[in-house]
Amino acid sequence: MTKWAIGIVVIVLILAGAIYAVYENNDYDFNDAEKSYRITQEWELPAELIEISGLEWAGNNKLACVQDEDGFLFIYDLESSKITKRYKFGASGDYEALTRLEDNYWVAESNGRLVQINDIEGPEENAKDIQLKFEYRNNIEGLAATPDGDLWIAVKDRNLDNEGDYKGIYSFDPSTGVLNMDPVLKVNYNDPKFDVFRTNNPRKLIRPSDLCFHPANGDVYILDAEFQKILIVEKNSGKIKRIHLLDPSKFPQPEGICFSPSGRLFVSTEGQMGTARIFEVELQ
C-alpha cells in the first residue's frame, strides 16, 4: 500500500472516530436505559402512509391519519388493518399534525396554517384554512384539542420570540380566531429529568413531533423524534413527570400520538427505509 493510500485510510479512521465520539457525547444508549413501556399491538401501514405524520382517535376502533405530503385524511380500521376511507381536503403540502375538536378535524401545516375539516362525508376540498402567525422556522409539528375547546400547538424548532431557555407550546382559540403569542405551557431545558441525555445543545432536548392529553388526568403527552421519547408533562406547571425512552429500532421516526377516550395510547412512526407502523403502547 502506498503512503498516499495509507494517509487516506488514517484520515478516514480519524474522521470516523471523531464522529463516533460526538455521537457518544450527544446521545443516549437505549440498551442501557430502563424499559418503561411495552407494545401490546402493532399494525403495518400501507405504502401511502409511509410518511404518516398525525394521528387521532376516530371512534369505533378506528384512527384518523394524515401524512406529510398529500392533502388527504385517512381513516384506518384497527380491526381489519385497512384504510376504510380517504378524504381529500386540500392540495399537497407539509402536513404535520392532526386533532379532533367536537365534530371537526383540524390539520396543522408546518408553516402554521390550520385546516378545518367540517365533514369528511361531504364534498371534498371543502375545508377552511387559517394562517396563524407562525413561519417555517417555527416548524409546527404538534396539535391537540383541549376539553375547553382550544387548540394547543407545539413548535419543533424556534419559539415565536426565538428566545427563552424553554420549549413553548401555544394556544389558539378557534371561536375567536386568536392565537396567544405567549406560550400556554413552557417545558424548561434545565428540568432535571433531561439529565439522561448528553448534548451540548439544549434545544435538542425537546423537539416535539406531536402532543395529546391524557383523557383522565389532563397530563400532556409530548412525542419527540429527536431522542425518541414520550414526555409526560403537568398541564399547568410544565414540569416533566416522566420520560419514556423509545427504542429507535422500533420507533425510527415517531410522528403521531393519541389516546382513545378509554385511555388506550397509540404512537405512529414513519417508515423511513422500511414500513410505517402504528403501535398500541402501555406505559409502565
Largest sheet: 5 strands, antiparallel
Query: Span between N and C termini?
Result: 56 Å
H/E order of the elements? HEEEEEEEEEEEEEEEEEEEEE
CATH class of the largest domain: Mainly Beta
Helix content: under 10%
Question: Would you identify the CATH H-level superfamily of the largest domain?
Answer: TolB, C-terminal domain
CATH topology of the largest domain: Neuraminidase
Helical/strand content category: mainly beta
Overall 3D geometry?
globular
Mean pLDDT: 89
Total helices: the number is 1
Task: Give me the count of strands.
Answer: 21
Explain what the structure shows:
The relative contact order is 0.16. The chain has one helix at residues 3-25; strands spanning 37-44, 52-59, 62-67, 72-77, 82-88, 95-101, 104-109, 113-117, 128-131, 140-145, 151-155, 166-173, 178-179, 185-188, 208-213, 220-224, 229-233, 240-245, 254-259, 265-269, 277-283. Residues 5-26 have low confidence and may be disordered. The protein has 1 helix and 21 strands. It folds into 2 domains: 1-31, no CATH class; 33-283, Neuraminidase (6 Propeller). It has 284 residues and is mainly beta. Strands 10, 11, 12, 13 and 14 form a 5-stranded antiparallel β-sheet that branches. Strands 1-21-20-19 form a 4-stranded antiparallel β-sheet, with no helix packed on it. A 4-stranded antiparallel β-sheet has the order 2-3-4-5, with no helix packed on it.
